[in-house]
Known about the structure:
This protein is of the alpha/beta class and about 150 residues long. Helix content is about 50%, strand content about 15%. It has a five-stranded parallel beta sheet with strand order 2-1-3-4-5, with helices on both faces.
Amino acid sequence: MSDRQWNVYLAGEIHSDWRDRIVAGAKEKNLPVSFSGPVTDHDSSDHCGVKILGEESQAFWQDRKGAGINAIRTSSMIGNADVVVVRFGPKFKQWNAAFDAGYAAALNKSLIILHDEEHNHALKEVDAAANATAKTPEQVVEILDYVITG
């Protein structure tokens, strides 16, 4: 097993337990992994800009303030990651997940994409940029286990 601690950034969909399943699986296998990710409380993430920097009358500027503050966290953590896992969920169009995947690819980060089969066609370019495309969080854990322990 590797003696070093691996940093894994978990990006994307925030409406299911996929992150918990990956963290639990890595813990069960005793992998030397630390996980990070975006703020997953939707309201906190959306409103951090106006809460910290002041109200805006236009939604565009409300969103822009929050996006800028969230980008500080996202760009720093993706930049420090050894592996980036990006989950595209079934319910919503996750433009932020696509951006995170593209940013990680531009930084030449090891990239695992996680999505259901129904998105195979829509995400074909994203999948092509990834090192691996998984269908379940458990497959992500198996990938991490193999990469870390051989």
